[in-house]
């Protein structure tokens, strides 16, 4: 069990920071004690429990939590639409005001599809696992099918971890269309690094939504949204049969920490060098929505 603080690299500020963790003591107890681990195995990962908790967060009874949450985690409320919010979930799925997070428009540059903490890998081999805070994660395990994973072997990977304190909408990194979409059912464990250190298969066994995208600049992408403990639902906003544009909202997570993984085809694009360097140090990089995170390599 990881007892030391979670250290991340703030790309914009160019400095290391200690992550402020919502429910830190509870997560440590849940994954770091025998009683908590019993509940982890037999109760808390159940989807029904997370849905029930999500229903409370969506009710007007939860609205009182917003003000103290904003103050504690120093959230810049002036950047968002919708104040005041009718429930905590309304706050949780808040939208940025127009122009606050512009998406880069250079077709060769991939914008960040989520405001999150990123790991980056330049290629995936058939037997490779990703050493994410002690986790083991393969393309086959993520996609749930060896045939579906094959086109992405040798391609780049981006893993975006969203904390409960983050903006929880996820976006399309380029223009294109959805050519396939399916759900892989599973439990809902926490995606906090402390939980990943205890149970290393979480990202490849949790409930997840998978979309295969055909994009204009980056080829085919596997876009994987992974649910987590107390995530009430993964909501899709963009119709599957409708083309999308760079920066369009794809969907959102209801309450809880979550993860989005992006797999690419071999030779199509490469993650930014600073993300790769931080990943080599086993440290995530905090990236703002819409900022450059990768470069197309086939132009």
Report the major sheet: 9 strands, mixed
Q: Helix/strand-derived class?
A: alpha+beta
Fraction of residues in helices? 10-25%
Mean of residue pLDDT?
82
Give me the strand/helix succession: EEHHHHHEEHHEEEHHEEEEEEHEE
Rounded Rg: 18 Å
User: What's the total number of strands?
Assistant: 15
Q: Low-confidence segments, ≥5 residues, pLDDT <50?
A: 188-193, 195-204
Given the structure, what is the number of helices?
10
Overall shape: it is: globular
* Strand arrangement in the largest pleated sheet: 2-1-14-4-5-12-9-8-7
Distance between the termini: 45 Å
- How big a fraction of the residues is strand? 25-35%
Describe the secondary structure blueprint for this structure:
Blueprint lengths: L6 E4 L4 E4 L5 H9 L1 H9 L4 H12 L6 H8 L15 H5 L16 E3 L4 E6 L17 H5 L2 H4 L7 E6 L6 E3 L4 E9 L8 H6 L3 H4 L2 E8 L3 E8 L7 E3 L12 E5 L4 E7 L4 E3 L1 H8 L3 E4 L4 E5 L3
Parallel strand pairs: 1-14
Antiparallel strand pairs: 1-2, 3-15, 4-5, 4-14, 5-12, 6-11, 7-8, 8-9, 9-12, 10-11, 13-15
Helix pairs in contact: 1-2
What does this structure look like?
- With 299 residues, the protein is an alpha+beta fold.
- Helix 1 crosses helix 2 (34-42).
- Strand 1 (7-10) and strand 2 form a beta hairpin.
- It has helices at residues 24-32, 34-42, 47-58, 65-72, 88-92, 139-143, 146-149, 193-198, 202-205, 273-280; strands at 7-10, 15-18, 109-111, 116-121, 157-162, 169-171, 176-184, 208-215, 219-226, 234-236, 249-253, 258-264, 269-271, 284-287, 292-296.
- Strands 2-1-14-4-5-12-9-8-7 form a nine-stranded mixed sheet. Strands 3-15-13 form a three-stranded antiparallel sheet. Strands 6-11-10 form a three-stranded antiparallel sheet, with no helix packed on it.
- The chain has a domain at 109-296.
């Amino acid at each position: 069990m990881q007892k030391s603080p979670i250290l991340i690299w703030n790309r914009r500020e160019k400095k290391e920071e200690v992550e402020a963790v919502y429910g830190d003591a509870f997560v440590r107890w849940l994954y770091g004690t025998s009683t908590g681990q019993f509940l982890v195995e037999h109760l808390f990962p159940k989807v029904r429990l997370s849905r029930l908790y999500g229903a409370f967060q969506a009710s007007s009874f939860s609205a009182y939590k917003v003000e103290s949450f904003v103050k504690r985690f120093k959230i810049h409320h002036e950047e968002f639409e919708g104040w005041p919010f009718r429930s905590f979930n309304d706050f949780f799925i808040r939208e940025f005001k127009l122009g606050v997070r512009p998406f880069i428009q250079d077709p060769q540059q991939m914008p960040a599809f989520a405001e999150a903490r990123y790991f980056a890998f330049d290629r995936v081999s058939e037997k490779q696992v990703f050493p994410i805070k002690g986790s083991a994660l393969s393309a086959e395990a993520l996609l749930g099918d060896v045939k579906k994973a094959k086109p992405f072997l040798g391609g780049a990977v981006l893993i975006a971890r969203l904390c409960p304190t983050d903006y929880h909408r996820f976006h399309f990194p380029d223009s294109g269309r959805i050519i396939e979409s399916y759900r892989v059912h599973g439990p809902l464990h926490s995606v906090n690094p402390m939980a990943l250190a205890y149970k290393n298969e979480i990202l490849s066994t949790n409930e997840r939504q998978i979309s295969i995208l055909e994009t204009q600049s980056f080829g085919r992408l596997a876009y994987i949204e992974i649910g987590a403990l107390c995530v009430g639902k993964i909501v899709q906003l963009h119709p599957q049969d409708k083309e999308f544009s760079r920066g369009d909202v794809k969907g959102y997570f209801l309450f809880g920490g979550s993860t989005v993984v992006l797999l690419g085809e071999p030779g199509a694009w490469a993650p930014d060098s600073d993300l790769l360097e931080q990943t080599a140090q086993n440290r995530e990089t905090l990236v703002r929505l819409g900022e450059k995170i990768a470069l197309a390599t086939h132009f």
